[in-house]
Design brief:
This protein is of the alpha+beta class. It contains 18 helices and 11 strands.
C-alpha cells in the first residue's frame, strides 16, 4: 500500500516531469550518440538489481523504470529485487558468472573500494554532468567515491533519525525530543519507572550491517567514528567506537533496551514502537510513515522525529546510509546503463517519489511545495545531510564488518567486554586485509 507523501509533489503532472527530465538528460549527453544508436538503433536490454526494502518501494522503482522506458523506447529494463542481506553476494557472484551479468548494480556506501578493485564497476568520473556533481549533497558522493574517482551515481541519501513517542515522554514530563544521549537515558529510566513499558528503547542490533550503522551513529558524537586511520591501523577499538559500544551495553545492563534488540532488524524496531512496546529508537527515514500509519501502528499520531541525539560537545551525528547506482564492467551498453542511473537519480524523479526517503538534491530542500507538509523533518534531514558519519571505504570492508558484527554481539551478550571484543578484531586486521 502506498503511504502518504510528505509533500504534494505526487500531484504534479507526470508528463511535465518527463518532459523536463528528457531535456535534462539530453543536455547531459552533450549530443553524444549512444551505443544502441551506433549499432543501428536496435533494442537494448538492461539487467539491473535493486534493494527490496526501505527508501524507494518496489512499485516506485518500477514506476521510475516504466517512465524511463517510455522516454527511451529502444531500451528495455529488467529489474530484480533482493533483500539487502543478499545484495552484495548476488552482485559479486554475477560478476564471476560467465552466463549472466548485471548492467547496473546498487552499491552500498562502503562497497566502492571492493567493487572498484575487483573490477566489478566502471569509473564514470568524466561522465557525471557538472550540474549533477554540484547539485547533490556532498555526503551523497561518499557511497560512490574511491581514490578520488566516481564509481556510481548517488541515488539514496539517508541516515538514521531519532523516533520517539510524544505521549510517553510527556507523561514523564519530557515535552520535546531529547537533545543528548544522556537525556535519552534519563527519559527512558523515568518511563520504565512509571511502568509505561518494560523496555523503553528498541534497536536494530542483529548480527548484520544494521548494528554497525547504529554503533557508528552513536560513536559519531562520542569521540568520533573513525574506524581506520590514514595508515590503515584500527581506531575503532578506542575513542568513539569504544565509548559507543560501552554505552550500548550499559542500556542493556540497566534494563532500558529490549534484549530482543539483539535479533531485531529495522522493521522489527518499527513494529515494536508501533505496538506501543517502546518509546524511542533509531531508524531510517521510511520509519516515519510506518509509525504514523493507522493501519500499521497503534500509536499513529503520537510518533515524532528529530535528528539523532548528541552530547554536550557534539550536537548530532548521522550514519551515512547512502547508496549509488553503478555501471558494471561487464555491460555491453554502458551509455544506456548510465542514462538509466542518471534518470533514476534525477531531481524530478527523486522529488516525485519522496514518500519514504528525502531527495539527495540540495535545491529540493528549499522548495516549500515539498517541505511544507513536514518542515521539521525536512530541516532535520537538511542539517544531517550536511555531514554524515561514513563507514570505512576499504576493499576488505565486508570482512571487517562481519568481524565487528560478531564482536559487538559478544560485547552486548556479555561474553566479552567491549574493549576485549574490539581489541580482538583489531588484532585480526592484518588477516582481514588479505
Amino acid at each position: 500500500m502506498r503511504v502518504t507523501h510528505r509533500g504534494p509533489s505526487g500531484l504534479r503532472s507526470l508528463s511535465a516531469v518527463l518532459a523536463g527530465l528528457t531535456m535534462v538528460l539530453a543536455a547531459c549527453s552533450g549530443g553524444a550518440t549512444n551505443s544502441s544508436s551506433a549499432s543501428g538503433g536496435g533494442q537494448v536490454t538492461l539487467n539491473t538489481i535493486w534493494m527490496k526494502q526501505a527508501a524507494y518501494s518496489d512499485d516506485e522503482v518500477k514506476a521510475m523504470i516504466a517512465a524511463f522506458e517510455a522516454a527511451n523506447p529502444n531500451i528495455k529494463v529488467n529489474a530484480e529485487f533482493v533483500q539487502y542481506e543478499s545484495l552484495h553476494d548476488k552482485i559479486v557472484t554475477a560478476q564471476s558468472n560467465a552466463s549472466g551479468h548485471y548492467d547496473t548494480v546498487l552499491m552500498d556506501t562502503p562497497w566502492p573500494a571492493e567493487f572498484a578493485d575487483a573490477q566489478i564497476v566502471r569509473d564514470i568520473t568524466d561522465k557525471i554532468p557538472a550540474d549533477f556533481q554540484a547539485g547533490v549533497f556532498d555526503s551523497a558522493w561518499t557511497g560512490a567515491t574511491y581514490k578520488g574517482k566516481k564509481w556510481g551515481v548517488p541515488w539514496i541519501n539517508d541516515t538514521k533519525f531519532f523516533f520517539y513517542n510524544k505521549k510517553m515522554l510527556a507523561d514523564v514530563g519530557v515535552m520535546s525530543a531529547p537533545k543528548t544521549w544522556d537525556e535519552v537515558i534519563t527519559a527512558a529510566k523515568a518511563i520504565k519507572a512509571k511502568g509505561t513499558v518494560q523496555y523503553p528503547l528498541a534497536w536494530s542490533w542483529i548480527q548484520a550491517e544494521a548494528v554497525i550503522c547504529d554503533w557508528a551513529e552513536i560513536a559519531g558524537v562520542m569521540g568520533g567514528a573513525n574506524f581506520i586511520d590514514d595508515q590503515g591501523n584500527a581506531t575503532f577499538n578506542k575513542g568513539g567506537g569504544l565509548a559507543a559500544l560501552q554505552f550500548m551495553k550499559q542500556t542493556i545492563d540497566d534494563g532500558l533496551t529490549n534484549p530482543a534488540s539483539l535479533g531485531f532488524k529495522e522493521d522489527d524496531v518499527n513494529s515494536t514502537i508501533a505496538a506501543g512496546q517502546a518509546a524511542m529508537g533509531l531508524n531510517w527515514t521510511y520509519g516515519y510513515n510506518v509509525l504514523n500509519d493507522k493501519a500499521k501502528s497503534t500509536v499513529a499520531g503520537d510518533i515524532a522525529v528529530a535528528a539523532a541525539p548528541g552530547t554536550a560537545s557534539t550536537p548530532t551525528a548521522g550514519v551515512n546510509g547512502g547508496m549509488s547506482i553503478a555501471v558494471t564492467t561487464k555491460t555491453q551498453h554502458p551509455d544506456e546503463a548510465l542514462k538509466l542511473a542518471l534518470w533514476m537519480a534525477s531531481e524530478p524523479m527523486q522529488e516525485k517519489y519522496d514518500a519514504n526517503t528525502f531527495p539527495e538534491w540540495k535545491a529540493s530542500f528549499d522548495k516549500t511545495e515539498l517541505t511544507n507538509r513536514n518542515p521539521e523533518f525536512w530541516a532535520a534531514a537538511k542539517s544531517a545531510f550536511a555531514g554524515l558519519v561514513a563507514r570505512p571505504i576499504v576493499p576488505y570492508y565486508t570482512k571487517l564488518s562481519t568481524a565487528l558484527q560478531v564482536a559487538i554481539q559478544e560485547a552486548l551478550k556479555g561474553t566479552k567486554t567491549p574493549q576485549q571484543a574490539l581489541d580482538d578484531v583489531a588484532a585480526k586486521l592484518p588477516d582481514l586485509k588479505k
